[in-house]
């Protein structure tokens, strides 16, 4: 039976760490909705050499995100256009209201986001907190499972081993195409990858072929 999957993050390109998982859902017949709460207006990368500036960057990053979604197979992209680097200052309950509305609208059963407290960027953590609040409002049995990405150095010590570790080698071309779509942010990384000798390329690819997630909310928990 197909499911509705929600991926919610603050920035265009945050979906790359989940691109393999999301591609697997698409291939399984699930419907995937992606929410970017901001347009990445405050991103520091402007291309190499520069081809964006502070005024053009938001529109450019939205365009890049559309290209990434095309590569993954995501048809439902929602842009909330909040101001980048301010999500952490929003009331988490009100942000959860918006996420919950999407959960109810689409009957979402799986959510991918950032693991609160282990996502490094304050806006990442803020969106993860709001997603957890929204999911926990649902009654057991109707509550979506929430998978969070974690990047702190101490994540394994604090959280233990991932609840879900995926080999996404079978969709790596789509994941790399999604990464390439974010040209303003990824051009240096892709130049290094594409210009590497076979041994070095294999080493670099290893960081993209495995995706790890920790359960933030269990659907059956009381």
CATH topology (fold) name: Rossmann fold
List how many beta strands DSSP finds: 7
CATH superfamily: LmbE-like
- Architecture in CATH? 3-Layer(aba) Sandwich
Q: What is the arithmetic mean of pLDDT?
A: 94
Q: What's the number of structural domains?
A: 1
Biggest sheet descriptor: 7 strands, mixed
Instruction: Give the low-pLDDT segments.
Output: none
Short recap of the structure:
With 222 residues, this protein is an alpha/beta fold.
Question: What does this 3D model show about the protein?
Answer:
- The protein has 222 residues and is of the alpha/beta class.
- The protein has a single domain (4-217), classed as LmbE-like (Rossmann fold), CATH 3.40.50.
- Helix content is 42%, strand content 19%.
- The protein contains eight helices and seven strands; from the N terminus they run βαβαβαβαβαβαααβ.
- The chain has helices spanning 19-27, 57-72, 92-106, 122-136, 155-159, 172-181, 183-194, 198-209; strands spanning 4-9, 31-38, 76-82, 110-114, 145-149, 164-167, 210-217.
- Strands 3-2-1-4-5-7-6 form a seven-stranded mixed sheet, with helices on both faces.
- α2 (57-72) links the parallel β2 and β3 (76-82).
- α2 (57-72) runs antiparallel to α6 (172-181) and α6 (172-181) packs across α7 (183-194).
- The longest helix is centred in the first third of the chain and has 16 residues, at 57-72.
- The chain is globular.
- The two termini are 25 Å apart.
Layout of strands and helices, then pairs:
Elements: E1 4-9, H1 19-27, E2 31-38, H2 57-72, E3 76-82, H3 92-106, E4 110-114, H4 122-136, E5 145-149, H5 155-159, E6 164-167, H6 172-181, H7 183-194, H8 198-209, E7 210-217
Parallel strand pairs: 1-2, 1-4, 2-3, 4-5
Antiparallel strand pairs: 5-7, 6-7
């Amino acid at each position: 039976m197909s499911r509705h999957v929600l991926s919610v993050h603050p920035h265009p390109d945050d979906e790359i760490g989940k691109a393999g998982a999301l591609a697997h859902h698409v291939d399984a017949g699930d419907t995937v909705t992606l929410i970017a709460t901001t347009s990445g207006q405050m991103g520091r990368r402007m291309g190499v050499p520069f081809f964006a500036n502070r005024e053009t960057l938001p529109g450019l990053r939205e365009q890049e995100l559309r290209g990434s979604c095309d590569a993954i197979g995501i048809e439902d992209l929602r842009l909330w256009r909040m101001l980048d680097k301010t999500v952490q200052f929003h009331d988490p309950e009100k942000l959860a209201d918006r996420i919950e509305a999407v959960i109810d609208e689409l009957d979402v059963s799986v959510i991918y986001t950032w693991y609160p407290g282990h996502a490094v960027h304050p806006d990442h953590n803020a969106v993860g907190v709001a997603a957890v609040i929204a999911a926990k409002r649902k009654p057991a049995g109707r509550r979506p499972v929430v998978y969070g990405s974690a990047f702190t150095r101490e994540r394994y010590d604090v959280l233990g081993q991932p609840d879900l570790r995926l080999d996404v080698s079978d969709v790596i071309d789509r994941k790399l195409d999604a990464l390439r779509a974010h040209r303003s942010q990824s051009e240096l990384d892709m130049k290094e990858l594409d210009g590497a000798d076979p041994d070095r390329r294999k080493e670099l690819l290893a960081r993209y072929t495995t995706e790890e997630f920790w359960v933030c909310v269990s659907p059956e928990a009381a």
